[in-house]
Amino acid sequence: MIDCSKYKNLIEKYLDGIIAEAELAELKSHAEACPPCREEFSHCALMQKAIGQALSSGISARQARAALLEELPVEPNRYVSSTWFVSRRVAVAAGILLTVGLLAGFALGRLSGPGKTVTPVTAQVPIRVAEIQGTVLVRHEGSELWRALGADSRIYLGDTFHATANSACILKLVGESTLDLKQNSMLVLRSYNGATQFRLEHGELTAALESPHPPFFISTPHGRVEALGTEFTVTVE
Length: 237
Prior knowledge:
Layout: H1 5-16, H2 21-33, H3 35-55, H4 61-71, H5 86-100, E1 124-125, E2 128-133, E3 136-139, E4 147-148, E5 155-156, E6 160-163, E7 168-172, E8 178-181, E9 185-191, E10 196-208, E11 216-220, E12 223-226, E13 231-236
Helix pairs in contact: 1-2, 1-3, 2-3, 3-4, 3-5, 4-5
């Protein structure tokens, strides 16, 4: 019996947008010969397609969610065991689709399809997720894949965070410094260590920094703000 634990991990990396080209090629080759992994990989590609449609302007989130549920098998698949994560992923995807439907046309971009190579991320930074409310999405630099941000998510240089409607998250930096991203907001981590810089594309961000703190900047489409104090809020309409 083939041990597929390695390929389960590769499927997770594929969903998270951090799979290397060689790993993706190996996963596809294995999936061709392994029915359980092929089925799981197919489900993942389906979820990406549905979320991508919901984040585009051509279809509503409710329509995309309905399409996703219609394409999933009605009967339990004989290959996929209950210990696999497909059901959890489908639930997360459905929740994201429903939440994104409240975004009043704010486009986030498309997810890549199953045949598109994903650029892996490399520069992990010591920022952690301190708190999450609702559905917050994250996308790694060089990738078109959006995924749900979790309490155990690793943060990388270049990550883009999107707090959807009725959602928010708190990011904890080194020490006691925190960033509170409000609903309907998009934030990009541009640089870290030495001088830290984020870019607020849209929405509202509240910072609470330690004193003293290293150079800290928030850029927006309208300019750049340097943090001289410890607490401040930046809003981009």
